[in-house]
Amino acid sequence: MDFWMRLIALIVQCVIIALAATTAFAYLTLFERRTLARLQNRIGPNRAGPNGVLQPLADAVKLFFKEDIIPALADRPVYLIAPAISIIPALIIWAVIPLGCWNVLGSYKACFDPAQQNDANSFWNIFIVANNINIGVLYLLAVTSIGVYGITLAGWASNSKYSMLGGIRSAAQLVSYELSLGLAVLGAIMMAGSLNTTEIVDVQRGWWFVIPQFLGFVLFMISSTAEVVRAPFDLVEAEQELAGGYNTEYGSMKFALFFMSEYLKLIAVSAIAVMLYFGGWNFPGLEALGDTLSPMIGVAGASAVVGIVSFLVFVLKVLIFLFISVWVRASWPRLRYDHLMNLGWKWLLPMALINVVATAAVVVLVPDNRYIQGIILFVIGVVVIVGAAALGQPRNKHQVEPISMAQISTKQ
Q1: Domain annotation covers residue 52
Q2: Does residue 55 sit within a domain?
Q3: What is the pTM of this model?
Q4: DSSP-based helix, strand, coil % in the chain, nearest 5
């Protein structure tokens, strides 16, 4: 009986997460378009529904009814499976991300006291997470690395030069930035001393890792932006060079799946950033809220309120990161491709190695005081970032003399 209850609960959780993720993707597109319009002083979508709120639904209907054309010389099996390979990792990545804490059968106190927490494999686990496994971060890194295959195979199978160049670029870009991304995450793992995602969140009560791992956080944000192929790192689909890149030959719902995977990955990396560096669902005053409500509505009611508020706190933090991503897209132009690779290999990777070495040294030399650890690592991170910014300045300070029209006509 316990097996079937676990199976039913797991299926229900998967369905809810999948539906919530796809709905969030749809309205993230609306959020991005409205925010970009606001930042760039123009009008966003405002025709479908009041204030454009039905625009995602209109886009979905349009894509459903568009003609689905497959190029005659495409590798048909690979061409058809590439969108699925791209979208599946974006959905299953949510299996190990803790979205909140709700102790259904006990007190909310268990959310803040590891000694009262249920077994990780218990049916009624207090954390709002589909599968609380002990290698959660390793699972995240493995799943995020799969996405490159969908883009690369789509570019290769389309039998188009534009698509092929986009696929080659994606393979080089994503593999390059995975190194600095993995090393940035390693710093947070060493601080927490665990690969379990719920334990990493639990360790950050009262002291978020964004302070001791400030350098790792900056590296994670840059590398994850490149990993999800977002501006200014969206060179694999640069319209002015590749006419759309790897998805040039895709239409209808196949194109929509690539579009969906990009936004789902953006939401996922924002959630991972919140989990690793901003305390996950933790927020000052949550336990005090439970203590205040417990005499009035009982322990079970207080646990429910704490669980809902913790989930809303997590969502709010993710929304802040999504806004920052849209803000960056509105503000920064695309990098040149050689500059993109230069940034990943010559700057981010050495800085990530410095962060790993510094974190390991500080954790070993100052094992019992995380506040001193945090201050030392924060100072090291700021020094490394400032030093890298100073060394990265162009060395040639001479201005190029402007050429007059008369000189141009003379040269011609």
Answers
A1: no
A2: no
A3: 0.90
A4: 70, 0, 30
Any domain includes 352: yes
Residue 252 to residues 18, 74, 242, Cα–Cα distance (Å): 21, 16, 20
Determine the distance from the C-alpha atom of residue 92 to the mean position of all C-alpha atoms in its chain, rounded to a whole number: 13
Q: Is the dihedral of CA 265, 267, 268, 274 positive or negative?
A: positive
How many structural domains does the chain have? 1
How does pLDDT run along the chain (412 residues), one tens digit per residue? Answer: 567 777 787 788 888 888 888 888 888 999 999 999 999 888 888 888 888 888 888 988 888 888 888 888 888 899 999 998 888 888 889 989 999 888 887 788 888 877 666 554 455 567 777 778 888 899 998 888 887 888 889 988 998 888 888 888 888 888 889 999 999 999 999 999 999 999 999 999 888 999 999 999 999 999 999 988 888 888 888 777 777 788 888 988 888 888 888 899 999 999 999 999 999 999 998 889 998 998 888 888 998 899 999 999 999 999 999 999 999 999 988 888 888 899 999 999 999 999 999 999 999 998 888 889 999 999 999 999 999 988 877 666 554 455 554 554 554 4
Nearest to 202 by CA among 128, 282, 269, 134: 282
Phi, psi of 319, deg, nearest 5: -60, -35
What is the span of the domain harbouring residue 156? 2-46+73-391
- Burial of residue 96 (CB within 10 Å: 0-12, 13-18, 19+) is buried
Q: 232: cis peptide before it, omega within 30°?
A: yes
State the distance between the two ends of the chain, measured CA to CA, in whole angstroms.
87
Please, are residues 129 and 97 in contact by the beta-carbon 8 Å criterion? yes
Does residue 399 lie in a domain region?
no
